[in-house]
Amino acid sequence: MSEAFASTDDPLGRLVAVGRAYVTYGREFPRRYRVLVGRRHLDAWEQEGRVMEQSDPVLREGIAVVANSVQGCIDAGLSTGTDALLGTAVLWFTLHGLIVVPQAITSVAWPEDEELFMACINRAAGIRPVPPGPAGRRARPPER
Fold first, then answer.
1. What is the DSSP string of 49-92?
2. pLDDT, tens digit, for every residue of 109-127?
3. Would you say 18 and 1 are in contact if contact means Cβ atoms under 8 Å apart?
């Protein structure tokens, strides 16, 4: 996520790249992802404590990257939001859902991945709708 953040100076491009990095990691490495974000009620509290201690620094860094991405969009006037922490929480929860819901509920024909991803980014981060036209700017994947 840090590399994705550093890949562009464009606030919206950063937000999209960071979100894509998070979702891609969760989908490509589902077991690692579950260890990183999972907080299961283990029989032995010591095991739970160790998992939390090991994953917390990584999660804190990830949350900071998302918060900086959201704040960048707020500062640039691209987001209707005013509270980066609230925007970060909504976006983080949404991205988590993009990872776990399709894995858990396979009987539903969900919208196409890219369309769903971009709708989640735009709505969760409060990206302002822009009228169509040459001056219009919408969140979209960065050019490869």
1. HHHHHHHHHHHHHHHHHHHHHHHHHHHTT-BS---HHHHHHHHH
2. 999 899 999 999 999 999 9
3. yes
